[in-house]
Write a structure and sequence with these properties.
The structure is a single chain. 12% of the residues are buried. By secondary structure, this protein is an alpha+beta fold. It is elongated. α2 packs across α3 (38-50). Strands 2-3-1-4 form a four-stranded antiparallel sheet. A hairpin with a 6-residue loop joins β2 (99-104) and β3. It contains five helices and four strands. It has helices spanning 10-21, 27-34, 38-50, 83-95, 120-133, and strands spanning 70-78, 99-104, 111-117, 137-144. The chain starts with 9 loop residues before the first helix and ends in a 16-residue tail after the last strand.
């Protein structure tokens, strides 16, 4: 992966928008939509992956089939921002299979994370484990999702 920022042209931006809508499109389908050849499309996508612009491809699972349907956002406030322990907490959150989204944020709260659990018992187990493993967690506040309205992790690219 390249350490410098990759320059994206109009075709790259169109490709990224299309791939974020569906990574199931073939190289030929993408090429046809953009107006380039299939080999050129293939080269561009591989360049975008090789340079770290595209980090991966995922399948979004229908929540009906999920075992852990309960989504709970937690706002985490820290007692310390000492770099080593803060980074250890981020590694723990990043590696947790229960955490589907996690961001360091500004304001009174330090971290916002979404947990997916079976029920409140599992939620309590998971959060107790977080508290046990990371003593810099001062407090957390939970917000239970009543209805998911949109789940589409994407970034919009201007195509001009």
């Amino acid at each position: 992966m390249s350490s410098s920022k990759v320059s994206l042209d109009r075709i790259d931006r169109k490709l990224l928008n299309l791939l974020q809508q569906s990574s199931m499109l073939t190289f030929q389908q993408l090429a046809d939509k953009i107006g380039i050849s299939q080999p050129a499309c293939h080269r561009r996508i591989h360049r975008l992956r090789d340079n770290g612009v595209i980090l991966g491809d995922v399948s979004i699972v229908n929540q009906t089939y999920a075992e852990r349907k309960l989504a709970i956002w937690i706002e985490i406030s820290l007692s310390s921002h000492q770099l080593n322990t803060f980074n250890e907490l981020l590694v723990m959150l990043r590696s947790s299979p229960y955490v589907s989204c996690c961001d360091v944020i500004t304001g009174d709260t330090d971290i916002l994370a979404c947990l997916n659990v079976v029920d409140m018992d599992e939620f309590r187990e998971v959060t107790r484990e977080f508290m046990r493993k990371s003593p810099i967690i001062k407090t957390y506040r939970s917000i239970t999702v009543a209805q998911r309205v949109k789940l589409h992790p994407s970034y919009l690219f201007d195509e001009n």
